[in-house]
Design goal:
Elements lengths: L3 H5 L18 H17 L6 E4 L4 E2 L14 E2 L3 E5 L9 E2 L10 E5 L5 H5 L1 H10 L3 E5 L8 E7 L2 E4 L8 E3 L4 E6 L2 E5 L9 H77 L8
Parallel strand pairs: 2-5, 6-7
Antiparallel strand pairs: 1-4, 2-3, 4-6, 7-8, 8-9, 10-11, 11-12
Length: about 280
């Protein structure tokens, strides 16, 4: 069976070689890389002066250009950010074609296979060769929780002290990195967790739905108040109508009584004219 590496020998040398990183250790590692990428890209959506990538090869030896895959010297951090560069897609990070720029910040995700190397060999490489200002590592398995951060001071990595929440400040990003719900997240200086596009869309959708629900409830409340007011007005009008009818009945009874008195008076007068005393009847 012919492998991709065998086929590479017959290909033209690449000025920007493709990334050639091994598979990630678990679905947690993949989810964490995607989360770091998507959140930063959403937060910096209006910026065009950075490059962020995950599990992408970094080639830092100029003489590696044109060599076969097996001869090239490269390493692919799980996540890294380079500042003050053009924001565009890349097949890999080729230091010699990027003005000699190395990552400003690197994050490695620990695993049983890579943890020792991440804490030692890679740390030394990022400190002494890359001279990357900040280096963090994080174990995405909640049963093996480990989060550490370092900043380069006088050529040596010094631990970044955590705050009360356990977050560590990144001067390069202007953000905190900290753990929330077993994932490594970014936090603003004010302590707000930075979402990605999907989370922000979901938040806005939920906020819109809540606002619409509040509007509906307010409309229903207003309608209920209006209905109560209309019912009260109808009751008042009914009571007024009943009062007017009672008054009319009273007036009619009074008129009838007066008519009866007038008829009785006429009858009494008639009897007296006939010489009959009505009081003796």
């Amino acid at each position: 069976m012919v492998s991709a590496r065998d086929l590479d020998a017959n290909l033209e040398p690449l000025s920007e070689p493709y990334s050639d990183e091994p598979p990630l250790e678990s679905s947690r590692h993949l989810a964490q890389i995607l989360l770091l990428l998507s959140c930063l890209e959403w937060w910096w959506r209006d910026r065009q002066d950075f490059f962020a990538a995950g599990n992408l090869s970094i080639y830092w030896q100029p003489e590696d250009i044109g060599k076969s895959w097996t001869e090239r010297q490269f390493i692919g951090p799980d996540f890294f950010v380079v500042l003050d560069v053009e924001r565009r897609s890349r097949n890999s990070w080729l230091v010699s074609q990027e003005g000699g720029r190395f990552p400003n910040i690197i994050v490695e995700l620990l695993s049983n296979r890579t943890a020792r190397k991440d804490r030692t060999t890679k740390k030394a490489l990022y400190q002494d060769v890359f001279k990357t200002p900040e280096y963090f590592w994080f174990h995405p398995d909640p049963k093996k929780r480990e989060f550490q951060g370092f900043r380069l001071e006088d050529g040596v990595y010094q631990e970044i002290a955590p705050n009360a929440e356990g977050w560590r400040w990144s001067e390069e990003l202007g953000l905190y990195l900290g753990i929330a719900q077993d994932q490594l997240r970014y936090f603003t200086p004010e302590g707000r967790m930075i979402p990605n596009f999907e989370e922000e869309t979901a938040r806005q959708t939920a906020a819109l739905a809540a606002a619409q629900e509040r509007l509906l409830q307010e409309r229903l409340r207003i309608e209920a108040v209006q209905q109560q007011a209309e019912a009260a007005q109808q009751q008042a009008e009914t009571a007024q109508q009943q009062a007017e009818a009672a008054q009319q009945q009273a007036e009619a009874a009074q008129q009838q009584a007066e008519a009866e008195r007038e008829r009785a008076k006429r009858l009494a007068d008639r009897l007296r004219s006939l010489g009959i005393d009505p009081d003796t009847l």
